[in-house]
Amino acid sequence: MANINDVSRLAQVSKATVSRVLSGSRNVKEESRLAVMRAVEVLNYKPNVIAQSLSNQSTGCIGVVCASENINQTTGYLHALEKQLRLNQKHLLLRFASDAASVAHSLNEIGNGLCDAVIVIGARFPLPPLPHSAITIDCLQSHTERSIQFDHSFAAETASQYLINQGRRNIALINLHDGDAAEQVSQGYHQALEHHLLPYNRQRVFSGENALQRLLNQNVSFNGLLVPDDAMAQEALRLLPQFGRQVPADVMVFSLDSTLPQGASAVPAIAYPLEKLAQRAIALLTAPLSAVAGTAPVRGTLMTPF
Amino acid sequence: MANINDVSRLAQVSKATVSRVLSGSRNVKEESRLAVMRAVEVLNYKPNVIAQSLSNQSTGCIGVVCASENINQTTGYLHALEKQLRLNQKHLLLRFASDAASVAHSLNEIGNGLCDAVIVIGARFPLPPLPHSAITIDCLQSHTERSIQFDHSFAAETASQYLINQGRRNIALINLHDGDAAEQVSQGYHQALEHHLLPYNRQRVFSGENALQRLLNQNVSFNGLLVPDDAMAQEALRLLPQFGRQVPADVMVFSLDSTLPQGASAVPAIAYPLEKLAQRAIALLTAPLSAVAGTAPVRGTLMTPF
DNA sequence: CTGTTAGCGCCTTCAG
DNA sequence: CTGAAGGCGCTAACAG
């Protein structure tokens, strides 16, 4: 593989000039510029990105740590993120993590120069202390700055409204185990109920391990069911019929966080704009400290099947 | 961030000795060794991987190019691969691609030193010429060497057998559009039918755009349905009831390629051992040119729901 | 406009 | 067992 020396030799100029030409500097005589480009062509020269990185102290790599629990959820993000990163000439270094320890472990790969920054996605567990160059998306911790949060309250309220409008007045809720998001969901749910003067029945709310199972074993009636994500929605679609409840006839299931495109979801859902989310993430990485203003939680939109 | 010079200074030895200690060389006096380790500790020194890469001419990064069509399919691989790579101290650089051009484009990121090798996964389109350091998994092209193929024939035959044993003698087939894999599926399907002396009805076989829709609009009876992957299975589960066919009562759907764990799939399926697949991929990358013998196509195993 | 020079941080001979 | 020196390939500051 040819290097910059070969090019400079063939083009009869110095390495510096070659470097200038390739970095698009305007201060180069057209003549030498052409000579360089010709040499580059002939030798099929590609600058070695590692050497560039060492010199620049920046690799163009962004570490992305996905919570491995809800993989299907995070996969949507991944795709969108990869696209945006590619558009910004950046590389995506993927990691999965299931707890604080493994996230911390992954962060070591940026502490030594491989990544310029990291993005943590969808962690439902408390995060370890993050470096300043890190941002979070849809994570438990209210990392306040440099993080993208969803408006779960809005989602829950919108979802409840929808179900109520569909004539489902007995709405059960499977909530996240805990954390700020769970709090918000609970809030939105309550608000919608109040708004329609519907009573709140704590026996219709479950969270944690086997929440769905426990709800079904309980002897409470419900004809609407809010679940936190598509994975749970799938499970509900499988379990409900086994308990003699047809979907959506007997129970209408609603997913509070879907990454599927319009029409692909089997149940109504709140979907978040993947593309915009990814762009915003990139902006957070790129922007120095300005976009602090735009830190408003992201609102999803209502998607209905068919 | 402290560098090797800081350490050598603090430890009162030369950079070379520091390097030796950190690379685990045995030829170092215990005394200097301890001095170095202490200095490392004090300064919280981490070797700069980029500098190492430049020196080693190897980054420890493996590029992984996923076909973006069947994302959900490839996500399973991703997770397994990431785990194995991590276990081998390697990094996973993710890319999505939807055609030969974008794969080729992605390959440029290895031609300049960023990646030591690439793995292409699940491409259902013809691939561009791959460098010698690349391997493929479940791709259209019979890349012959340095590739991991699935035994689709075996899968289709096993699947058909299963359906027949479940009393489904009229089996429809949604096949991949074309390519070696489609050929194999077709073969396995035929073999099973012949084995049971069942007639082959070409009106039950579809492939390409809207294959499922076309099958349903056709006026052919079937009580078993082979689909190429989980995505199509999901779609079948959604569409069939809309056409008045209950699953599995009226039609039993079978997925020929599932990456879901046992019990998670709503339909019977052939599942491939993700973990082993990933290990094999790593082996192909690591091994020089020996494991050519083990290039037998991988056989999936039958998974039934519940 | 251009070449020279000095790094970036590490590894690896090669003499001692 | 150890240190000095050169090299990996590129960028950037500084003279001309």
UniProtKB/TrEMBL annotation, chains A, B:
A molecular-function term among this protein's GO annotations: DNA-binding transcription factor activity
SMART domains: HTH_LACI
Signal peptide (from-to): none
Stored InterPro entries: HTH_LacI, LacI/GalR-like_sensor, Lambda_DNA-bd_dom_sf, Peripla_BP_I
HTH lacI-type domain boundaries: 2-56
Recorded superkingdom: Bacteria
CDD domains for the chain: HTH_LacI
Alphabetical UniProt keywords: DNA-binding, Transcription, Transcription regulation
Protein name according to UniProt: LacI family transcriptional regulator
Species this chain originates from: Ewingella americana
Lineage, top ranks: Bacteria, Pseudomonadati, Pseudomonadota, Gammaproteobacteria, Enterobacterales
